[in-house]
Amino acid sequence: MTHDELTKLLQSDDPDKVRKALQHIKTPISKGEKITDDTLILMLQSNLEFVYNTALKYIIQKKQKGIMSGLYIPAQMEKNDIFDHALFALWTYVRKHEFDTSKEASIERFLRVVCKRHISRYLAKNLRNGDTDVDIDTIPEPSDDTLPPIYDIDVYDIMQRLFGSLGKGCREILTLRYYKDKKFKGIAEEVESSEASVKVTLYRCIDRLKKRIGENPDLGNFIKDLLN
Amino acid sequence: MKYDAEHIDQYLNGELSKAEVKAFEEKISTDKDFAYEVELQEAAIQAIQYPNFMRGIKNVRNEIATEPTIGDKAKTSVVEMKPKRSRTIRRLLTIAATLLLIILAYFILPKSPHNPMAATTDLIIKFESGDKGGDTRKTPLQEGIKLFETGDYQAAIPLFDQVIRENPNKRTDAQFLKADALHHLGRKDDARAVLQSIKKVDNEKHYKEAQMILKKYK
Hints:
The complex is a heterodimer of chains A (228) and B (218). By secondary structure, chain A is an all-alpha fold. Helix content of chain A is 67%, strand content 0%. Chain B has helices spanning 5-12, 18-30, 32-66, 87-108, 118-128, 140-150, 153-166, 171-184, 188-196, 204-216. The N and C termini of chain B lie far apart (132 Å). In chain B, α6 (140-150) runs antiparallel to α7.
């Protein structure tokens, strides 16, 4: 199966075709063969959770160790947490941007840079606060600035709390739209409502969340800093 | 143009036309508040995705923890074999096991009363009970044997005495049988005396057997 055929199947709306494509990918994995970055990106771009989770699983099992090797991990940070945040950054990035896989080991490079950025920001913040006795020389090299803005781990944690503070109905609709990538028609069927009603509710919910993020002093300023 | 959440959403989802995108991006570059609004919406979307994604990753990690690594060959459980013992140790173990069996057999198997003459008398009886070529008459030795086999030792002894006196060819046979009969009657001293009376000139083989028996006979 060619890459184009695989792309077509993975992007299909027919779950059977997607499963067929995934089976085509899983067979070489089970034999211990490598899957290319192109295929992994394709899988991460899929709207189906079981497809991109297969890619994430492969990355964790086959790439995490190599990517994290040699990185200084502060005692207060968990290696898996840092890597999982980097995976989130990769996942959100490939869904919005063209990912140039022509560069050698570009997924590895992306993830390593993000991990380094998370660690250096954490150390910089804690050094400022005097919470750590880490030697300044151990802070990783400045990260690659060609990458898009990536939020701090702390920022994600605040955002997670703010999302959790929304009502159940809001959380459900927003999750269906922005995590499960459902169209309004699909969301309306799932929540047993009309498309128009879903649309109104969804934008009202997202405005509410934006307001809470903007009103949070840490987050509001952080986002402003990103823009400057 | 009014830029609301829906419109920003359409831009972020790539649902705007080229002209609309151009206008949208111009607005971002010239209007800081608007740029902030767009960034805020992107942050909001990430705030929605983040907890869901982390939940998914947690499940993936749990899955990894409970199954073999992707791409690894199916792992077969390996039973660790004990190293082979040296040949000497194995031989010693075999000997020890055999001795153990013998000791167990000694204690477990029913014990027969010690009768050192039994083997010889059995042979004599077997020989004397053989086919005599149609001659149905019984010699005193055969009659004594018949009584001996029925357990009538007391009655058998005079017949053995008769053979000892009258038949030099069968004397040592009769002496052995008489000693055995006395042994069964509990007269061990008499039995020993009969064995001592077996002479080398009569039958060298029986003499040697008698001497050997006498050494062990208590």
